[in-house]
Amino acid sequence: MGSPVVLGIESSCDETGAGLVREGRLLGHVVASSMDEHARYGGVVPEIAARAHVHALTPVVRRALDEAGLRMSDVGAVAVTTGPGLSGALQVGLAGAKSLAYALDVPLYGVHHLAGHVAADTLEHGPLPDPCMVLVVSGGHTSLLLVRDLARDPIVHLSDTLDDAAGECFDKVARVFGLPYPGGPAIDRAARDGDPAAVPFPRPLTAPRDAAHTHSFPSSFSSSFSFSGLKTAAARWAEGHAGRPLPVADGAASLQEAVADVLTRKAVAACREHGVRTLVVVGGVAANSRVRALAEERCRAAGIALRVPPPRLCTDNGAMIAAVGDLLVRAGADPAPLNMSIDPSAPLETASLHPVGAAFGRAA
Ligand code: KG4
Ligand code: ZN
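Above: the input record for the complex with zinc ion. Below: its predicted structure, written as tokens.
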């Protein structure tokens, strides 16, 4: 009989995604975005995002099935993001996923959004080696994770950001530079015409002395990330041009260089420290051209195998959630109860996330 077709649903932020995966193979996926509706506010408006999910969910699922050449009755399991993310947005995806699982009488799985980002890479490059080092860089998270069997083992957090996430830094600085939302892709585009050495932006927490201030690696610098100082430095630099034209391309290229430098330096150091031979870079910021190029260069020099999903699978999508669902199904994981709730501030502990009732009360 083989393993079932898993439908994955993602709705944690401004993308409504549906994907279909079976035995590690991507059969089809479709993403609708409410990005344009948020652009004039300079950031995601939760209520607008939630309403857009209501409108997009059914058509997106239908189009993903069409793309895969499948019918609704071919779906054998449903996986859905239950956190972290925007509460109203998550609720819409979960309600849709529960309805489909109930109507089709198939098992339902709750998935941690960041585990989805990790699993996205398996759709392009096959099963993850055990162990692997994963750098997750998105709009809300910047973490280095030691991943073993994604479906079975707890995920070990080696480091996190003390303040802003890398994507958040791009988004906020882009706004100050007068670039459109979302800021990351806009910075990436603007940087093409700029000089990455034009502005000497700081490289937060990469100096040896920084190790003393945070829970440290055994290595010579802190394992933690911090992007709020870099964001402020970029804002100050822009303010310093008051009345004069801002060389946006140089600012964008220099900011992108600083972020890429910090991320890749720490990721490679973590691989060395833990004797891990494979680095996987995932999440929206993994779509950044300079992050990809510098990771490639530094991994090659260090003899580390690098895996980065194609850009369309780096940003939020339903295929990555289906990929986790497929791994859980094949690992024989317990399905979620139909009274499963969302957990908007869920910490990343395991790939499956089945909060029921009380978990939703946790302080962010
Ligand atoms: O993973 P994702 O789609 O959503 C979250 O889980 O947050 O990541 C979104 C983030 C945003 O901050 C966006 O600006 C950033 O990823 N991003 C990029 C690029 N594409 C998306 N940052 C830099 N360069 C890009 N090309
Ligand atoms: Zn994401």
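Notes for the reader.
The beta strands are 5-10, 15-22, 25-33, 75-83, 108-112, 132-137, 142-147, 156-159, 278-282, 305-307.
Residues 5-118+314-363 form a domain with the Nucleotidyltransferase; domain 5 fold (CATH 3.30.420.40).
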